[in-house]
Prior knowledge:
Blueprint: E1 3-8, H1 11-27, E2 31-36, H2 39-43, H3 51-63, E3 67-72, H4 80-90, E4 94-98, E5 110-111, E6 114-115, E7 120-123, H5 126-134, E8 142-144, H6 151-159, E9 170-175, H7 179-183, H8 191-204, E10 208-213, H9 220-225, H10 235-239, E11 244-247, H11 252-258, E12 262-266, H12 277-281, E13 286-287, H13 290-299, H14 309-313, H15 323-334
Parallel strand pairs: 1-2, 1-3, 3-4, 4-7, 7-8, 9-10, 9-11, 11-12, 12-13
Antiparallel strand pairs: 5-6
Amino acid sequence: MKEIILLCHDPGGFDVINPVYKYFVANGKENVNYYCVGPAAKLNPLNGQKQESVIKLLNQKIEKNSLSLLVTGTSWGNDIELQAIELCKQSGIVTVAILDYWSSYYSRFQADERTIFPDYYIVMDDIAQSEAVNEEVPKNIIKVLGHPGLDQFIKYYKGMSKKNDKGDKRKILFLSQPISLVYGDMYGYTEHKVINDLISIMDILPHYELAIKFHPKEDPTLIKNYAFLEEKGDLSDLIKNFDIIIGMATIGLLHAALMGKVVISYQPNILKPDGCITNKLGISSLINNYEKLHDVLKFIDLDNTTSNLDKILNQFIWSDGESTHRVCQFLSFLNK
């Protein structure tokens, strides 16, 4: 039986590729090898590989005619997945990329002056498909199959108690992202600005406590500067211990909403179109200045989580919690 290679670099890619790997291992019907590089290797050292080793391994498997399918994430700031896609396409190997977030649909596949699309581009819903086509991604390569990384949160949402337990302090977790490293100040704000604003508000509203969950690709200097606020550990475990989750435009806000938490998207002085998925879905609203954030936190009702979340979720294919199954069925079909 020929091999399926799964490859991811960024944490977002890991979120969608890792469930696929676990599904294949649990079912034992496919010959699968799994390579994590860069930040993904830190999340999963057991399957970690160096970037140059992955390309060498792919070349060896192509020479032996043992490879039938390549499945990758869609990383930023690194082209290992694009290198692998190009190498496999040149050798007639079917390639698939799985999207992890509702943004940058086209630019994820740009390398230097070239655009390297996979044979199939799995996206999570009709919103992603429409936005991808608007960015001139070829519609014929798009497959709307869901989001494997959301399955665990959908299952949690369907099984959780709707009651929130509140302590004396209101606990806020900020989900940082390396905005300044990737985009500079082109969005009108950075993670530095947001953190400083939150710290300032904590001084004014002493009944709140702030903690920060840093992104795996974060600037080490930033982490060092705010180490006294850092929360370490698995995000899904951390979210349970907080009342309010604040982010900029991270999928972690959607995870938190599905875990019954109040979520806030804070993007002060935003200069670009709002790409936050919870804002797009109507789960949260964009807060774009300090004064509004202060007022929201001062008067927020922790019992008033999104009451229409069921109605919102029912519009999307990924809301059934079966995205991983659907994606793996499609990959198995391609592997025949």
